[in-house]
């Protein structure tokens, strides 16, 4: 199968280049460490261990996290 040169260039720019970066290496390291301890049965057995009450209890933390991210973006924009 022959690949178009533009597609090969796009693949190199979007897939292989980030893997050579520090972030890519860090993510691969974390995956390599976590993969032997991963259990699909444990992951898919109970999505909400504390029920919907636990999900709603975590909602304020999600809102504060969103506000923190937006604050950083606003500060960077004004600088």
Question: What is the element layout, followed by pairings?
Answer:
Layout: H1 5-19, H2 22-34, H3 40-45, H4 51-78
Count of separate DSSP helical elements: 4
Question: Structural class of the helices, strands and pairings?
Answer: mainly alpha
State which percent range the strand residues make up: under 5%
Distance between the termini: 50 Å
Sheet of most strands? none
Q: How many strands?
A: 0
Low-confidence stretches: none
State mean pLDDT (0 to 100 scale): 84
Following the backbone from N to C, one meets helices and strands in this order, namely: HHHH
Percent of residues in helices: over 70%
Taken from the alpha-carbon principal axes, the silhouette is extended
Structure keywords:
extended, 79 residues, mainly alpha, 4 helices
Concise structural overview:
This protein has 79 residues and is mostly helical.
Would you kindly provide a written description of the structure presented here, covering whatever features stand out?
The chain is an all-alpha fold. The chain contains 4 helices and no strands. The longest helix is centred in the last third of the chain and has 28 residues, at 51-78. The model has no long low-confidence stretch (mean pLDDT 84).
């Amino acid at each position: 199968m022959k690949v178009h040169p533009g597609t090969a260039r796009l693949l190199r720019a979007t897939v292989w280049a980030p893997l050579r970066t520090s972030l890519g290496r860090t993510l691969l390291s974390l995956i390599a460490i976590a993969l032997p301890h991963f259990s699909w049965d444990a992951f898919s057995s109970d999505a909400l261990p504390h029920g919907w009450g636990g999900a709603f209890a975590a909602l304020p933390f999600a809102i504060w996290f969103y506000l923190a991210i937006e604050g950083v973006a606003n500060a960077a924009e004004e600088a």
